[in-house]
Design a protein that fits this description.
Distance between the termini: 44 Å
Family: Belongs to the ABC transporter superfamily.
Protein name: ABC transporter ATP-binding protein
Oligomer: single chain
Number of strands: 12
CATH superfamily of one domain: P-loop containing nucleotide triphosphate hydrolases
CATH architecture of one domain: 3-Layer(aba) Sandwich
InterPro entries: AAA+_ATPase (IPR003593), ABC_transp_ATP-bind (IPR050319), ABC_transporter-like_ATP-bd (IPR003439), ABC_transporter-like_CS (IPR017871), Oligopep_ABC_C (IPR013563), P-loop_NTPase (IPR027417)
Radius of gyration: 21 Å
Keywords: ATP-binding, Nucleotide-binding, Transport
Order of helices and strands: EEEHEEHEHHHEHEHEEHHHEE
Strand content: 15-25%
GO molecular function, one term: ATP hydrolysis activity
Structural class: alpha/beta
CATH class of one domain: Alpha Beta
Shape: globular
């Protein structure tokens, strides 16, 4: 909120693009801290052929998510990146059953949750949480922060299956404030009394209240100043290392994705067009769309563009192009691209791309 006080944690001048292994306050980057181990054979989250279609007037339909399959391993950070309107947020909400998918399958901890009733899904809510983009709209402005954070602790039983006592809840609230670097006095204040970065810390604390394993972060820093973005990304990284969390991190900013993600999936018009280890995908993009996105990231060096920039606007998902969904904007389009839709195929170990003519390694 304009004019709201900022905590010292929100006053760093560091640029997230320039972050290396450690942030401005010595926080370790998630990419250097916690990766899926070789012994982790079972995915924490699996998605198979997931689609979400919205019915529109006049018999039209909008396919926001189109046949996505992926695995998220314990302890990894999967970055979902793409332009606005590509389906990233819808996919994130479908993963947690905040929005029901039209078709496909979602497995969490090996359990099929795709069609579970709300009653059957409720115990699982403790282990899968979401941090939303709009930190202010996510908080009830009429309730104190302490009440907002205490609500999930009152609704869900403790690890022993019993209702938590007021003393236990108070102790947990103090722990949460320490985790997100806010003073305990914040519990007695209202959302409008905080800055945007502080409110996002509160939302993170609420997501962590029940000690989840999986956190879906939906553009959690896009509405923040660059200096505050760096602090919040560092907080996500520290919490991942400290608590052993797994993230699906939704963003349109490749600089943020590069900083925190161990693996990245690039989405375009509802589908994943490239997926692989973050450094491999961003330094050696195989899809023209990924290459154009990486080229759009500001760089201090001066020189010619390595890849042609994006041209035109993203087509309407209501009238998706035939063949390759990117062919209307692709600088290297061929006749085959206009009629035949490519599927994800490996270009290197652990690196898949949906392109008939993938870019050569560079």
């Amino acid at each position: 909120m304009t004019g709201s006080p900022s905590s010292p944690a929100d006053q760093s001048s560091a640029d997230p693009v320039a972050q290396t292994a450690h942030g401005p306050s010595g926080h370790a980057n998630a990419k250097t801290m916690l990766r899926p181990t070789d012994t982790a054979t079972a995915p924490l989250l699996s998605v198979r052929d997931l689609s979400k279609t919205y019915d529109l007037p006049r018999g039209q339909s909008l396919k926001a998510v189109d046949g996505i399959s992926l695995d998220v391993m314990p302890g990894e950070v999967l970055g979902l990146v793409g332009e606005s309107g590509c389906g990233k947020s819808t996919l994130g909400r479908c993963l947690l059953r905040l929005t029901d998918a039209t078709s496909g399958q979602i497995l969490f901890e090996g359990q099929d949750i795709t069609r579970l009733s709300e009653r059957a899904l409720r115990p699982l809510r403790q282990r899968m949480q979401m941090v939303f983009q709009d930190s202010y709209a996510s908080l009830n402005p009429r309730r104190r922060i302490g009440d907002l954070l205490a609500e999930p602790l009152k609704v869900h039983p403790g690890p022993d299956g019993r209702k938590r006592t007021p003393a236990v809840i108070t102790g947990r609230l103090h722990d949460l404030m320490e985790l997100v670097s806010l003073p305990v006095t914040a519990l007695d204040r209202y959302p409008h009394e905080f800055s945007g970065g502080q409110r996002q810390r509160i939302n993170i604390a609420r997501a962590l209240a029940l000690s989840p394993r999986l956190v879906v972060a939906d553009e959690p820093v896009s509405a923040l100043d660059v200096s505050v973005q760096a602090q919040i990304v560092n907080l996500f990284a520290d919490l991942q290392a400290q608590l052993g969390l797994t993230y699906v991190f939704v963003a349109h900013d490749l600089a943020v994705v590069r900083q925190i993600s161990t693996r990245v999936a690039v989405m375009y018009l509802g589908a994943i067009v490239e997926i692989g280890e973050t450094d491999d995908v961003l330094h050696h993009p195989a899809h023209p769309y990924t290459a154009a996105l990486t080229q759009a990231v500001p760089r201090p060096e001066v020189g010619a563009l390595r890849h042609p920039p994006l041209r035109g606007d993203i087509p309407s998902p209501v009238a998706r192009p035939s063949g390759c969904r990117f062919h209307t904007r692709c600088p290297a389009v061929e006749d085959r691209c206009r009629t035949e839709e490519p599927t994800l195929q490996p270009v290197r170990s652990g690196h898949d791309v949906a392109c008939h003519f993938p870019l050569a390694a560079n």
